[in-house]
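Try this one yourself first.
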């Protein structure tokens, strides 16, 4: 048994981690932290998990709570991990952080996109960027992984093989992506309330969404990214455009790049978010448009799965020397 602590266990991602861990052959959720829900049971906060965690309660985190822990997952609001990372790393416990705090390479880039100085810049080099399909070897040998953002995961997986093979011009990439409202977290907000999102489709974060920095870092490209909010609970569909170089067929490049990947499927069909709902799967396709000279690439993921909890577990499996697919599936829940 691998004793697992979850920081932020009361949120949507925390709930998804708990659901996936319940089916994992080795991981067990033994310490659950949720500051706003401390003292309440998992069954109260995540009623769908009551059959597995009926009597488990959320607590408040303190350093002593790391005793008897073999793995730490953090699904905390932005900025919180900067204050906790040194404590966790000092104990040598494998740590997978979903926050944006340690995803970027340097403090200056972080400050540019997040609007304030990084509080633990000396730790940035300790973390490996967490997309296994592009960083597997480094993740396997690391004690600290910063799991990629949900939008970034969708776009990077669709584009990286095309950039690496010089099939598209990396200087001018456009990414439009639409996400379900669970990506905004569990806390009630007017912008993501039912009356606001139902029957509506809206762009946000114009020119400034922070996942742009991850895309540019991983792709070594210049990216214009526009996120959208769509009236559904979970899922991301990323639609990506770039100038073609004429160096090869983009769909064949995706198929070749991911031929041996268990969670990424390149398909002739245009993917839909429903195909990957509830899974760690990624569905991709691409086309060359000879009329405009551009490449179109599409990616569908579950923002709570491959975009969050699923990818965290995939990274942890690698870090712990387990089967990378343990506790995970590429098959979505349909209809």
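Now uncover the answer:
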């Amino acid at each position: 048994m691998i004793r697992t602590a979850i920081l932020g266990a009361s949120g949507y991602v925390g709930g998804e981690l708990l659901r996936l861990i319940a089916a994992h052959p080795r991981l067990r959720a033994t310490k659950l932290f949720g500051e706003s829900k401390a003292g309440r049971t998992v069954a109260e906060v995540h009623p769908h998990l009551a059959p597995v965690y009926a009597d488990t309660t959320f607590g408040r985190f303190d350093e002593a709570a790391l005793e008897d822990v073999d793995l730490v997952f953090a699904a905390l609001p932005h900025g919180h991990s900067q204050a906790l990372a040194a404590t966790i790393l000092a104990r040598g416990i494998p740590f997978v952080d979903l926050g944006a705090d340690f995803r970027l390479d340097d403090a200056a880039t972080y400050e540019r996109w997040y609007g304030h100085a990084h509080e633990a810049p000396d730790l940035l080099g300790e973390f490996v960027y967490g997309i296994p399909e592009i960083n597997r070897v480094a993740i396997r040998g690391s004690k600290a992984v910063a799991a990629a953002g949900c939008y970034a995961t969708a776009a990077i997986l669709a584009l990286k093989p095309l950039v690496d093979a010089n099939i598209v011009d990396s200087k001018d990439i456009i990414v439009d992506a639409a996400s379900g409202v669970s990506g905004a977290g569990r806390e009630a907000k007017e912008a993501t309330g039912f009356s606001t999102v139902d029957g509506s489709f809206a762009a946000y974060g114009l020119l400034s969404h922070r996942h742009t920095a991850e895309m540019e870092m991983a792709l070594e490209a210049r990216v214009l990214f526009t996120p959208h909010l769509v009236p559904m609970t979970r899922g991301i569909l990323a639609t990506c455009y770039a100038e073609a170089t004429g160096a090869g067929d983009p769909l064949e490049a995706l198929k070749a790049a991911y031929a041996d990947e268990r969670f990424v499927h390149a398909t002739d069909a245009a993917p839909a978010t429903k195909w990957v709902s509830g899974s760690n799967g990624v569905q991709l396709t691409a086309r060359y448009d000879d009329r405009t000279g551009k490449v179109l690439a599409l990616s569908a993921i579950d923002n709570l799965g491959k975009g969050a909890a699923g990818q965290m577990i995939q990274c942890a499996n690698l870090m712990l020397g387990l089967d990378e697919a343990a506790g995970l599936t590429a098959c979505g829940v349909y209809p």
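Discussion: The chain has a mean pLDDT of 96. The longest strand covers residues 168-179.
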